[in-house]
Amino acid sequence: MEPPFAERSFLPEAVFSEDVVMVTGGSSGMGRGMALAFAQGGAKLAIVGRDLEKAQAVVAEIEAMGETALAVSADVRDPVAVSAAFDTAEAALGPVSILANNAGGNFPALAEALSTNAWNAITRIAIDGTFLCSTEFARRRLALGARGAIVNNSAQYIWTGFPGDAHSAAAKTAVATMTRAFARDWKDSGIRVNCVAAGFFPHGASTNGDDPDVVENLGRMIPAGRTGRMQEFGWAAAFLCSPFASAITGQVMMIDGGESLRRALMSPDFVPPNQRSNVWGYTA
Question: Which residues are listed as membrane-spanning (predicted)?
Answer without folding.
Answer: none
